[in-house]
């Protein structure tokens, strides 16, 4: 039976607000409070982080801490690759969303000849580059790094040569080539983005299932359509940012946005997505308990995590019993 391996990534270098490094521990507290044995059931590995560099001056205004984020990418990529080599399913619990670039790199390093699709459940598009970023926060750039996308048509910044050097290196973690193609990204409930990102949506016909569309079609149909849009992909990575939830439910995250999923919708959505046999990795990010005295965000996120993990386990058990039958 293929087992799930938890990969804990406490790096928060890419976020605009501090505190996402505590997200994994907040999930563990939610787990204890619920009386669940979740974190005892699975083997886990923690990827060492470089969060201490935040006590030093940031030298890269258009890609903050990119030198340390490059090292973080490499460590995440290696850990994901090692997890696949062990025959296990990587379930990543990460701080800020910049870490997803390392996860994608690890998937492609393991399967360089397979086509990877990405389902990005997030309030934000995260497809900026150092040339277009309004903030310099690298949790807005993981998809652009994975695509090898500079988006120079929408250039507003002139990054320093050192920044460009590290950005080019970031694009090459895991594989020299771009890891994904624009047409193999599907967004769900993304509702906060800037003009350079909209330009890429339009140019490459990238699909975003808006919240009104989720309401009109129902969660199951949206999940099915998202998976169908990736019919040419051999494998799929699902990335779940907790700010995909409506801000009523997601106070404990760095950038909450109104008009998003409720907890039940998120559980149903993730369940349907990870039940697809092509899904090889699931990631949950951006829980920040310092913004949430009651730890409600982590409790909601843990409920989604437990439900999603059960769906992954059911699928893995089913495929292993079919294989031995």
Roughly what is the average pLDDT, rounded to an integer?
96
> CA-to-CA gap between the ends?
13 Å
SSE pattern, N- to C-terminal: EHHEHEHEHHEHEHHEHEH
Rg for CA atoms:
18 Å
Family: Belongs to the arginase family.
GO cellular component, one term: cytosol
EC number: 3.5.3.1
Pfam family, one: Arginase
Brief descriptors of the model:
single chain, 325 residues, eight-stranded parallel sheet, 11 helices, Ureohydrolase_dom_sf, Ureohydrolase, metal-binding, manganese
Describe the 3D structure.
The chain is 41% helix and 14% strand. With 325 residues, it is an alpha/beta fold. It has one domain (4-324): Arginase, Chain A, CATH 3.40.800.10. An eight-stranded parallel beta sheet has the order 2-1-3-8-7-4-5-6, with helices on both faces. Strand 7, helix 10 and strand 8 (279-285) form a beta-alpha-beta unit. It is globular. This is Arginase. InterPro entries: Arginase (IPR014033), Ureohydrolase (IPR006035), Ureohydrolase_dom_sf (IPR023696).
